[in-house]
Design goal:
The protein has helices spanning about 20, 25-40, 55-60, 80-90, 130-140, and strands at about 1-5, 45-50, 70-75, 95-100, 120-125. The protein is an alpha/beta fold. The protein has one domain: Rossmann fold, CATH 3.40.50. The protein has five helices and five strands; from the N terminus they run βααβαβαββα. Strands 2-1-3-4-5 form a five-stranded parallel β-sheet, sandwiched between helices.
């Protein structure tokens, strides 16, 4: 199975940005962890990060075509990214949305997630383990 893993705004600063919320591990640490699990599952991953909604949409349109599923952490775009939600929905691929922090334990404006409606499921608050759970879900459900 080919899985497109997308990380949105500010996730490139993992390890430095609000370590009390997001921990001290970096995006490179996350991608290493994901690639290790992917090898166990015989998955091929494409991992990409952008701070720009349009770039994420471009990747969904281009890379998503060759993928069997999408795992996305849209970051703050989750709360207002209607164009991103449309692209995810329009991809025709199973989507799992992941958030490192528990968005429902944070500011009220983070409780509404417009991108979640385009996903089969949302995993929130499990740290990097949420991404692994998304991979395991895709393996168990065959996408």
């Amino acid at each position: 199975m080919k899985v497109l893993v997308l990380n949105g705004p500010n996730l490139g600063t993992l390890g430095r940005r609000e370590p009390e919320v997001y921990g001290t591990q970096t995006l490179a640490d996350l991608e290493k962890l994901l690639n290790e699990r992917a090898r166990e599952l015989d998955f091929a991953l494409t991992c990409l990060q952008s701070n720009h909604e349009g770039q994420l949409i471009d990747w969904i349109e281009k890379e998503g075509v060759a993928s069997d599923a999408i795992i996305i952490n849209p970051g703050a775009l989750s709360h207002y990214g209607l164009a991103l939600a449309d692209a995810l929905r329009g991809s025709g691929k199973p989507v799992v949305e992941v958030h490192i922090s528990n968005v429902f334990a944070r500011e009220p404006e983070r409780h509404r997630m417009v991108t979640a409606a385009a996903a089969k499921g949302v995993i929130s608050g499990l740290g990097f383990e949420g991404y692994l759970a998304a991979l395991d879900y895709l393996a168990a459900s065959n996408g």
